[in-house]
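Q: I have two molecules that I believe assemble together. Could you output structure tokens for the complex as a whole instead of separate predictions?
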Amino acid sequence: AQSVTQLGSHVSVSEGALVLLRCNYSSSVPPYLFWYVQYPNQGLQLLLKYTSAATLVKGINGFEAEFKKSETSFHLTKPSAHMSDAAEYFCAVSDQRGSARQLTFGSGTQLTVLP
Amino acid sequence: KAGVTQTPRYLIKTRGQQVTLSCSPISGHRSVSWYQQTPGQGLQFLFEYFSETQRNKGNFPGRFSGRQFSNSRSEMNVSTLELGDSALYLCASSLVPNRFANTGELFFGEGSRLTVL
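A: Yes, here they are, computed for all two components at once.
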């Protein structure tokens, strides 16, 4: 079984500061890992994904994440926060078996950006 | 290219009623998945369809069902509604070349927000 733990249900940063959202996963098989963002009253938008290629993954809007197998982590970072980054962020995992395409999501981290 | 379209966006039902939600995937996407999002349980997988066949099912009671049509459009149905079924129901489509592929990249619609009174 797979699981995802997102440390910190709420994170606040100042505009221009580093954004770091933490995600740890548990999977018995090599995982695919994803970060999604959700703005109020909207669906989820894919920020980036790890699918066993490069361990440092660059996504949209200046976000990136690094897959660290030894730490079972996939933390999301952005060097400089913008007001428009305020949203809820979800880390998700799926396994690489062909018959399983469902995602297991973390509980989410609400990011607040302070002016 | 149009995104994933879900209808209706908002609906209110009473306990014991049933509801049908509709999802039109991105053109060319043959995989459609459904997720339930609630403040207490977060995002939970309901089921996935590929080429009109249910491929995976989450841990939900039989009151939750779905189907997929030949044009890849999907519907989900919840019968005998309970207060706890109040949630945002999200549909996602995926460009999957065949039944064995596993990209896992989902494109989500804006959801159908169901309120059960």
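A: One point stands out. The two ends of chain B are 37 Å apart (CA to CA).
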